[in-house]
Design goal:
The chain has one domain: START domain (Alpha-D-Glucose-1,6-Bisphosphate, Chain A, domain 4). It contains three helices and seven strands, in the order E-H-E-E-E-E-E-E-H-H. The protein has a seven-stranded antiparallel sheet. The protein is globular, with a radius of gyration of 15 Å. The two termini are 28 Å apart. The relative contact order is 0.24.
C-alpha cells in the first residue's frame, strides 16, 4: 500500500507498457487489445512469459486481472482517493511459486518486499513527472 498523487495514479497505472520502468525483473508488457496483455519477466533467474486478461476495470477505482496462459497469477489494484491530493494504492496478488528458488523466495517474503519496492518506484515515477503520461492504450 502507498499514498501518491490523486489525479495521475489510476491513469498512470493503466499505461501497462510502462510497467518495466518501475517493476523490477519485468522486461516487457505488450497490450494486445483492450483486455489482454503479454508479459515477459525474469523470475528466479528464469525467463517467463504469459498472457493476462483484465477481468474488471473501473476508472479511478480498480483494475483486476488473471493469467490465461503461462505463469499462473491473478490480482487486483485498488485506488482509494483520500483527498484532492492523495490516493491510497493497494495491490492484492495471488501467484503460485514453482520450483525451489521461487518457493524459498516466497517463504522468505521476498515477493511481498518486491511488490512494496515496485509500488515505491511507481510513486516516484508519478511524483517525478507531476502527472501521468499521455501514451495511448493500444
Amino acid at each position: 500500500m502507498l499514498r501518491c498523487r490523486s489525479a495521475p495514479s489510476y491513469n498512470q497505472w493503466t499505461q501497462f507498457e510502462e510497467f518495466p520502468q518501475f517493476m523490477e525483473g519485468l522486461q516487457s508488457v505488450t497490450q494486445l487489445d483492450d483486455t489482454h496483455l503479454r508479459w515477459v519477466a525474469e523470475i528466479g533467474g528464469k525467463r517467463e512469459e504469459w498472457e493476462a486478461e483484465i477481468t474488471e476495470q473501473h476508472p479511478e477505482e480498480r483494475v483486476a486481472w488473471k493469467a490465461v496462459g503461462g505463469k499462473g497469477n491473478a490480482g487486483v489494484v485498488t485506488f482509494h482517493r483520500l483527498d484532492e491530493e492523495q490516493t491510497r494504492v493497494t495491490v492484492q496478488l495471488d501467484w503460485h511459486p514453482e520450483g525451489v528458488i521461487e518457493n524459498v523466495g516466497t517463504a522468505l517474503g521476498l515477493d511481498d518486499r518486491q511488490v512494496s519496492r515496485d509500488l515505491g518506484r511507481f510513486k516516484g515515477l508519478i511524483e517525478s513527472r507531476g502527472g501521468e503520461t499521455a501514451m495511448p492504450h493500444s
